[in-house]
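Memo to structure team: turn this sequence into structure tokens by end of day. - J.P.
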Amino acid sequence: MTENTKLTNQLFLVTGASSGLGLAVALQLIQNGHKVFLVARRENILQEMSEKYPKQVHYYAGDVCAELFIKQLALKLPDNITGAFINAGGPPAKTTLETTLQDWDLAYNQLIRWKIQLTQILIPKFQANIYGRIVFSESTSITRPVKNLILSNSLRMAIIGLVKTLALEHEKSGITFNILAPGYHATKALDRLYEKLSLQDKTTIKDAKVKIASSVPVGNIGSVEDYASLAAWLLSEKSSFVTGQIFNIDGGASI
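Reply from structure team:
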């Protein structure tokens, strides 16, 4: 891939693109002048994005956790794709004793299985182009336990092993693999933690929001736009010297 191609002809897959961090990353990439292939369950939002940015947005609606959907997605992905932002929602907020074995099975499928399936599809495309970027959007729970998130705390750590192994397996390939580990950001996903904390503390959602924000060393909840700017950099050709790394974006909570 020539230098000029890298700079002007970028196409990125973004999953979980209809809300939260995925939507923010998609918008940042569009703003940077790139094309995006958006995937999410809410087709109406993806369609709105396509209508607003017709020259930059393609989409395919469905559930990434479904094996058949990923197989169908593989047939639709163009061969000139240059990077992927792999992202989806997390499992419910529960303590260990509140979970069932079914919760663990579902969480494995939600947090690990489909990501491996999609990665196995993407890598051959990147190998053919001698260039590619894969960024996994996980959680600060990937490196430290977060209260009431036993499923996330336990299973997301497998992605660390996956990414570091991939980085070694694909040395000198032009392909990089990294992890973003967001802490508390202003998205709907945070609502489940507010609700859980308010029930445990027998207080209001408002009080739960204040408590969580005050627990962050910088003193506030994170901005999805700030998160997206780092994601876009990791997906760019400028991040070629970075692979196999975990970036905590959590206001200092992981310290």
